[in-house]
Amino acid sequence: MSAAGDVPEAASRRLESGSFSSGLSATDFSACLQMGLRPVGLVQGFCAMQWGWYAAGSSLGRGLSPFGPSGGGGYQQNWYCPHGFVGGEHRTWGQNFEQTWVEDAWRTGFSAAFDRMLEEAESVGAHGVIGVTDTSRHLADTRVIEFHLLGTAVVVDGAPSPPAGTPWSTYLAGPRLAKLVEAGFMPVSVVATMASVRVWAYCITEFLMEGGAYGWAASMGSTAEIEQVSEARLAARVLAREQARRQLGSDTLQGIAFSAVEREIGAGDQVVECTLRGTRVRRFKDFDPLPPPRPTVRLS
User: Given strand 93-98, what is the order of strands in its sheet?
Assistant: First the structure.
């Protein structure tokens, strides 16, 4: 965690103004006030990361095994042509493999933006950051990805000033956060992981991805499962879940959201990237119902 003096000058002016800013909806804002959480500022962090692509098999030779790391390696699954020699351009071998260097770069970029958001929150004396949103996007047609995290810094009314260190954070806000606290859980930190799996297609995958049904593969019919692609999508989700599990320790993950994107590279080749997000929570009390909300408008 950097010192508060490292917060960008523009952010310091925004956070030191006489008013406060918030990214909460009216409903979430009201629910947070009911819980004793007072917004003190909108905080954010950015990071731009660049990385290159490795060739097929770049993650090999590190004790790899299907569906999970073995000896510190990554996922790998091989596929072999059942037809024998057909021609020089016939793909007799394919592979699904985890692009660990892409995952490391994504993790570095996300963590840098996350830390900068927390630096802003700490500079205004916040206990935590609620309603966090995170986005990542490619800058033009480059291999540069910009990470942006945004949230509302809050203080707990009546609580002592937070000690120096990392404020807690959560994707939740408003009624969803209130229900979590009511159930006896306290947010610890947002958790986000990304798994990247490269599909290096072999002959059958290439054929099916092109939608063909002729020649030597006509016997396969017009419908068939593309097993190599199915396995890649499953592996990406399993890997993202395992990465998140390693961050939790004895805590649990709430509000989990999966998202997956695929990029076609050509000739059946593609990249599958799966992102998992959630809030790491820890039990701090038994179930304790919150008092009913006070009505703001009376109809009688």
Answer: 76-80, 93-98, 185-200, 269-283, 252-266
The residue segments making up the domain with residue 116 are 1-54+101-182
179: left (phi over 0), alpha (psi -120 to 50) or beta: alpha
The whole-model pTM stands at 0.78
Counting beta carbons within 10 angstroms of the beta carbon of residue 282, is it exposed (0 to 12), middle (13 to 18) or buried (19 or more)? middle
Query: Are 238 and 212 contained in the same domain?
Result: yes
Whether 115 and 233 share a structural domain: no
3-state SS track over 198-232: EEECCHHHHHHHCCCCCHHHHHHCCCCCCHHHHHH
Note whether 271 and 196 are within 8 A (CB): yes
pLDDT of residue 271: 94
pLDDT, tens digit, 9 for 90 and up, residues 220-275: 556 778 899 999 999 999 999 999 999 998 999 999 999 999 988 888 899 999 99
Q: Record the tokens describing residue 262, joined without a space.
A: 């695929």
